[in-house]
Automatic annotation (TrEMBL):
PANTHER family: LCCL DOMAIN PROTEIN (AFU_ORTHOLOGUE AFUA_5G02970), LCCL DOMAIN PROTEIN (AFU_ORTHOLOGUE AFUA_5G08630). Keywords: Membrane, Transmembrane, Transmembrane helix. It comes from Bombardia bombarda. Residues 128-226 form the LCCL domain. The keyword Chloroplast does not apply. This is LCCL domain-containing protein. Residues 17-29 have a biased composition (Basic residues).
């Protein structure tokens, strides 16, 4: 066994440059950017070109703006016309609003109480105290009230226990013609035929104290809920011809049916006559905000009728100021590029009067109004029920049958059957 010497052979191969063996971060970033750029190139037209549209009858669409520029050639003159038009709109908007939501008195000179659609005589949760002592008197009292329009579709959105049943996604009206004290007063007035749902109206509530046996009935689009026990507070609803307010016993219709055409016509004329994006966007934004906040979807307020308008205007101003800040951001980032005049694809001539007035009115102003009136235009979609709990409670009402060994044996309706024959209602809700 001889010893062997081992020699390490030197690597005689030429070393490769570092650029070939290891790519730098910039090289990888450049390659990824190149792939993304090539992907975007597949989506855009080839060769690249500026987007443009051919307006329908451009001479007809340009006529209103050109006519206004011919009569009032100066920008200052058109600005004065815009201010005067806004003042006219404010007067036309405010007079019906004050007439419908202003102070109303009854025959005795008492101020009528304005109610929201969900107002009840019996307070929520345990606010009435033990035996309802904080909600007295229970009888021998009456007061005049006024309800807004569209109260028939107002429903409870959480399970409300009425005797052995859980009421959900339906108007909370129990009984008739004598109603339980925790019923919606405006819903009960519609059910009794005192007011109509389209226009609201006024009536008189009379407290009748404790009552036993509230029967279910369906009238005027509302099906009341039965309750076969007693309740310490109940009431009736009747008409009062001495009260003059909006609705079925009024001197005029509900204001939303009159104010919507006024605001809509004004914004359409503004869209057809103006070519400046700022002159169209900010007045339209204020008009839409005022219409939603004061007419179509006002905040829930209740109290004496002489305090309703000041409360609504206070809430409106408090919400308008921060909204204008958001509107300015939207205008600079989204609206101004959208409303700026696009070049025509058939000609490179950019007419200062614009030829897209009709497209702008239909494709921008109309969707803007549809979105602002979403509480009406999208009312057929049950958006308030589109929650996990709401879907389960509405469409998957089930519970469990629990055996003696504690295991779930079968499904049943909402609740839980136990092996000893007892029933726990509502335990199956998620």
């Amino acid at each position: 066994d001889g010893s062997y010497e081992q020699f390490e052979l030197d690597d005689l191969s030429r070393p490769r440059p570092a650029s070939r063996t290891k790519r730098t971060y910039r090289q990888k970033r450049r390659e990824s950017d190149g792939l993304f750029t090539r992907f975007l190139a597949l989506l855009r037209p080839s060769p690249p070109r500026s987007n443009g549209i051919n307006p329908i009858l451009p001479s007809v669409q340009q006529y209103p703006a050109r006519w206004l520029q011919t009569i009032l050639p100066g920008k200052f003159q058109r600005a004065i016309l815009l201010i005067i038009s806004l003042i006219i709109w404010a007067v036309a908007f405010g007079v019906p609003l004050v007439h419908s939501k202003g102070t109303v008195t009854d025959a005795a000179g008492q101020v009528v109480t304005h109610l929201d659609c969900v107002d009840t005589l019996w307070r929520r949760n345990n606010e009435c105290g033990l035996d309802g002592i904080d909600c007295r008197p229970f009888s021998n009292e009456s007061f005049a009230f006024r309800c807004p329009a569209d109260c028939a579709g107002v429903r409870v959105l959480n399970p409300h226990h009425v005797g052995p049943q859980d009421v959900n996604y339906r108007p909370l009206v129990m009984g008739g013609p004598v109603y339980r004290g925790d019923s919606f007063v405006c819903g009960a007035a519609i059910h009794a035929g005192v007011i109509n749902d389209a226009g609201g109206g006024c009536g008189r509530v009379s407290l009748v104290g404790e009552y036993y046996g509230f029967f279910s009935s369906a009238h005027n689009g509302i099906e009341s809920i039965a309750f076969d026990s007693y309740f310490p507070l109940s009431f009736t609803v009747s008409k009062d011809d001495d009260i003059h307010c909006n609705g079925n016993n009024s001197k005029g219709p509900d204001p939303r049916h009159l104010l919507l055409p006024i605001s809509l016509i004004f914004t359409i004329l503004l869209s057809l006559l103006t070519t400046s994006p700022a002159s169209l966007f900010f007045p339209t934004f204020v008009i839409l905000f005022a219409h939603v906040a004061l007419v179509s979807d006002p905040p829930a307020v209740s109290g004496p009728s002489d305090a309703i308008l000041p409360t609504l205007f206070s809430i409106f101003i408090g919400r308008l100021l921060p909204s204008l800040f958001c509107a300015a951001i939207l205008f600079s980032t989204c609206v101004n590029p959208t409303l700026s005049k696009l070049p025509s694809s058939s000609s490179s001539d950019n007419n200062p009067s614009g030829g897209f007035q009709l497209e702008k009115t239909i494709l921008w102003l109309l969707p803007c109004w549809l979105a602002a009136l979403s509480n009406t235009t999208l009312a057929w979609i049950p958006l308030k029920q589109a929650t996990g709990r709401g879907v389960v409670n509405e469409y998957f009402r089930f519970g469990f049958i629990i055996g003696k060994d504690g295991r779930a044996g079968d499904y049943t309706e909402a609740g839980t059957w136990f092996g000893n024959g007892t029933w726990s209602r509502g335990a199956g809700y998620w």
